Amino acid sequence: PLTLQVKNKAPAEVQITAEQLLREAKERELELLPPPPQQKITDVEELNDYKLRKRKTFEDNIRKNRTVISNWIKYAQWEESLKEIQRARSIYERALDVDYRNVTLWLKYAEMEMKNRQVNHARNIWDRAITTLPRVNQFWYKYTYMEEMLGNVAGSRQVFERWMEWQPEEQAWHSYINFELRYKEVDRAPLLVIVHPDVKNWIKYARFEEKHSYFAHARKVYERAVEFFGEEHMDEHLYVAFAKFEENQKEFERVRVIYKYALDRIPKQEAQNLFKNYTIFEKKFGDRRGIEDIIVSKRRFQYEEEVKANPHNYDAWFDYLRLVESDTDAETVREVYERAIANVPPIQEKRHWKRYIYLWINYALYEELEAKASKRTRQVYQACIELIPHKKFTFAKIWLLYAQFEIRQKNLPLARRALGTSIGKCPKNKLFKGYIELELQLREFDRCRKLYEKFLEFAPENCTSWIKFAELETILGDIDRARAIYELAIGQPRLDMPEVLWKSYIDFEIEQEEYEKTRNLYRRLLQRTQHVKVWISFAQFELSAGKEESLSRCRQIYEEANKAMRNCEEKEERVMLLESWRNFEEEFGTDSTKERIDKLMPEKIKKRRKLQAEDGSDAGWEEYYDYIFPEDTANQPNLKLLAMAKLWKKQQQESEAAEVDPDKDIDESQS
């Protein structure tokens, strides 16, 4: 086969893109074609021929695509323009057979009949349309408007009633209401709220009644709306409208009741507008008390929201209860207290109950002091005691407060029974102390002795209890019992504060002027501990004994202490002892004794030692002070070396001074 040879393969000078080709084609489409020549029809035959050709064109278009409704409408409108109403009806009917759901088709059909004043035909079409497509509101609007324009009010009302049976949207109901109002038929206005029970519709209904001066009916509408929505679906707009209605009627007390009722039940975040309107109302018509009530109500809402969000937030309950107690009646306060104490901590651990238990305490105190209801107070205490899991922990405060309450009620047996039960169920130091304090105030000393015995059986290591028991016997004048109690106490194998106990025992013997027994106590104590404070206290006791040999005894004790503490690792304690001894000698000693104690005083020197970190690595050096006692034989070589070093340093300083002085004399002579 022959192939064409391209001679010039260079690109053309003018390049044309596909976009340019398409744009050019589109532009040429818009070029105006010359209009067709006008035809003048002069006789009937030409007219019939024109109609035939035109109808054939329309029919061909319809036959090509039956579903294009615009072709049907153009065809019918062309027939209508020729006043061929029957043919136009036939075309519309044929089109409805094809697509009876087309809204435009029905509208054009009915408009054609109305334009040509075919009222009955138009009614027939509208009836068929609303029967076939009852949810198309446009048909109903057009139908009712046509009947009203024709003056057929009854027919229009009948159409509206048929429409309302389908429960259309709100605008349809408003159209019906406005229709009745136009003809002063107020009683015939329909109840929109039955089908659309929204808040705005209830408000419109009430305002409608108010506008026509049916104030009692308007109030009933608002009341029905409040009852209809209940407390589960409350809306602030309804109550604001209700309150403003009552305000217009000068019913100010009713307005306050409405606002307070709504504020007590609507959540705070949904009642901002309500608060605002209530505040404005009180500023206009209320007094200072009313404004304070608003503030209290607002705070109550805040606390309600807090406790709803977290019922175990006991601090919020405390604030809420404090607010309620200051402003409301006893029943409301009790209700809030019952709600608060119902939130029992979920975990039986004392740290979770510490805040909760104060709700019960405050409840009981409120019933006793504010409400003056002793019977309810007793019930509160008993319920609280039953609730606490005493096997795991208890609260001595509750038991003691209950007992004190019963005493205030002059019911001593119940108070003793409560404290006895507490000691039997869950003995605690605080309970024993409170019970003993009670019996002491009642001067029941035999009961106090029994309680101290039980207390010491429960906690024999408690030195304070032993001391208090002995002091009680001392006050009662039974010295032998007090001394026996002290002996039992110091004989216990384990004590929490033994030094306090021994000091109390020694002070007791000193008060009784039993100096020999006091010395024996000191000796017994020194067998257990060689603490420097014991020695100093022993020496001061001998000094205060006031006898002739007191100074020699005191000096002897200091000497014993010094000998005993030579092997003590804590050199600071030994220094403390020597300083106390020196003070004694400065006040009561002679020159020889003072010189002797000065020789015993240690020398303070600075030393360095190596530090180690926790991982064993070197952490550097630190300086510290050490004491060197002249009596320590182990340190004598060091002391001798130290003395020689000091002497050498002194000699060096003197020689340097001698060398400087001659030069100074020569300078003076030359000057």
TrEMBL record:
<dbReference type="InterPro" id="IPR045075">
    <property type="entry name" value="Syf1-like"/>
</dbReference>
<protein>
    <recommendedName>
        <fullName>Crooked neck-like protein 1</fullName>
    </recommendedName>
</protein>
<keyword id="KW-0597">Phosphoprotein</keyword>
<dbReference type="InterPro" id="IPR011990">
    <property type="entry name" value="TPR-like_helical_dom_sf"/>
</dbReference>
<feature type="compositionally biased region" description="Acidic residues">
    <location>
        <begin position="656"/>
        <end position="671"/>
    </location>
</feature>
<feature type="region of interest" description="Disordered">
    <location>
        <begin position="652"/>
        <end position="671"/>
    </location>
</feature>
<keyword id="KW-0507">mRNA processing</keyword>
<keyword id="KW-0508">mRNA splicing</keyword>
<keyword id="KW-0677">Repeat</keyword>
<dbReference type="InterPro" id="IPR003107">
    <property type="entry name" value="HAT"/>
</dbReference>
<dbReference type="InterPro" id="IPR055430">
    <property type="entry name" value="HAT_Syf1_CNRKL1_C"/>
</dbReference>
<dbReference type="GO" id="GO:0071014">
    <property type="term" value="C:post-mRNA release spliceosomal complex"/>
</dbReference>
<keyword id="KW-0747">Spliceosome</keyword>
<dbReference type="GO" id="GO:0016607">
    <property type="term" value="C:nuclear speck"/>
</dbReference>
<feature type="domain" description="Pre-mRNA-splicing factor Syf1/CRNKL1-like C-terminal HAT-repeats">
    <location>
        <begin position="372"/>
        <end position="523"/>
    </location>
</feature>
<comment type="similarity">
    <text>Belongs to the crooked-neck family.</text>
</comment>
<keyword id="KW-0539">Nucleus</keyword>
<dbReference type="GO" id="GO:0000245">
    <property type="term" value="P:spliceosomal complex assembly"/>
</dbReference>
<dbReference type="GO" id="GO:0071011">
    <property type="term" value="C:precatalytic spliceosome"/>
</dbReference>
<keyword id="KW-0175">Coiled coil</keyword>
<feature type="coiled-coil region">
    <location>
        <begin position="508"/>
        <end position="574"/>
    </location>
</feature>
<comment type="function">
    <text>Involved in pre-mRNA splicing process. As a component of the minor spliceosome, involved in the splicing of U12-type introns in pre-mRNAs.</text>
</comment>
<feature type="domain" description="Pre-mRNA-splicing factor Syf1/CRNKL1-like C-terminal HAT-repeats">
    <location>
        <begin position="70"/>
        <end position="350"/>
    </location>
</feature>
<dbReference type="Pfam" id="PF23231">
    <property type="entry name" value="HAT_Syf1_CNRKL1_C"/>
</dbReference>
<dbReference type="GO" id="GO:0000974">
    <property type="term" value="C:Prp19 complex"/>
</dbReference>
<dbReference type="GO" id="GO:0071007">
    <property type="term" value="C:U2-type catalytic step 2 spliceosome"/>
</dbReference>
